[in-house]
Design a protein that fits this description.
Elements: H1 11-23, E1 41-46, H2 48-51, H3 61-66, E2 74-78, H4 84-89, H5 91-94, E3 100-106, H6 109-113, H7 118-134, E4 138-142, H8 154-164, E5 167-169, H9 191-216
Parallel strand pairs: 1-2, 1-3, 3-4, 4-5
Helix pairs in contact: 7-8
C-alpha cells in the first residue's frame, strides 16, 4: 500500500527566510523602530568605554567604526564617569540636537560600580531609548555582562531592546575584562580591546544600515 506524503508548499520559503535571517545575524529588521530614519549622524553615546579611556589617538571604538566605510558621520558622545542618570541629563545636547540617524547606547558600568539599583538603571535606559526614538532615530543597545556570579544587566537590557524595537549587541566586553593583553587598566580596554568592541558592534549595525539604506534608497554602509 502506497503511503501518501504531504509536502508543505511553504517549507522551502520558511527555510529560505531562516537562511536570510541567519545571514543578517538573526535580526528581524521589520521590528526596528525608525528604520526609515532621515537623520544623518551615527552617534555613540555612553561613558568611558565610548569616550575611549585607555586608548591611543583614534583607537576609541567610534573612531574605529568610522573607518569601516561609513558615509555618515560618526560622533563620539561618550563621557567618562557617566551613570545612566547623568547620561539622561545630557541626552538633548549630546545626541538629540545632532540629527541622529542611529544611536549606539553603551551604559551601565558606572551604575554597577556605584551600586545604583538595577530597576533605576533600567528606567533611565528606557527613557533614553524612548527619547531617541521620539526624535526619529534608530537605537542599538550594547550590553555588558556585569556581576560577579550572574549577568545582572544583560537580560534586562536585551528585554528593553525587544520591548522598544531597538537592536541589541550582547556582551561587547566579552573576553576583555579577564585578558590583560586587551586592557590598559583593570577596567578599560586598550586599543586592541576597543577593536574587538568595534568589531562586535559593526557586525550588528552594518547589516541594519544596509537594510535601512535599501529601504530608503540612500547610500550608506559599504
Amino acid at each position: 500500500m502506497r503511503r501518501l506524503i504531504y509536502r508543505n508548499p511553504f517549507h522551502g520559503l520558511h527555510f529560505l527566510a531562516i537562511v536570510i535571517l541567519m545571514a543578517c545575524g538573526g535580526e528581524d529588521f521589520a521590528k526596528i523602530r525608525n528604520i526609515h530614519s532621515s537623520g544623518q549622524a551615527i552617534i555613540c553615546f555612553g561613558d568611558s568605554l565610548t569616550e575611549g579611556v585607555g586608548a591611543g589617538a583614534r583607537e576609541d571604538y567610534p573612531s574605529l567604526l568610522l573607518s569601516r566605510q561609513l558615509v555618515f558621520p560618526v560622533i563620539n558622545a561618550g563621557r567618562r564617569g557617566d551613570t545612566s542618570a547623568q547620561a539622561l541629563e545630557r541626552l538633548s545636547t549630546s545626541v538629540l540636537n545632532k540629527n541622529p540617524r542611529l544611536v549606539i547606547v553603551l551604559l551601565g558600568g558606572n551604575d554597577f560600580l556605584r551600586q545604583v539599583p538595577r530597576q533605576e538603571t533600567r528606567k533611565n535606559l528606557e527613557e533614553i531609548v524612548r527619547r531617541i526614538q521620539n526624535s526619529g532615530a534608530m537605537v542599538v543597545i550594547a550590553g555588558l555582562k556585569l556581576g560577579f556570579f550572574t549577568d545582572e544587566y544583560g537580560p534586562r537590557f536585551e528585554e528593553t531592546a525587544r520591548q522598544f524595537g531597538a537592536s541589541y549587541v550582547g556582551q561587547v566586553m566579552k573576553g576583555i575584562f579577564n585578558d590583560s593583553a586587551l586592557k590598559s587598566d583593570p577596567i578599560h580596554p586598550n586599543g586592541a580591546g576597543y577593536r574587538l568592541i568595534a568589531g562586535r558592534i559593526a557586525e550588528k549595525i552594518m547589516p541594519l544600515l544596509r537594510e535601512a539604506d535599501r529601504l530608503t534608497g540612500r547610500p550608506g554602509a559599504g
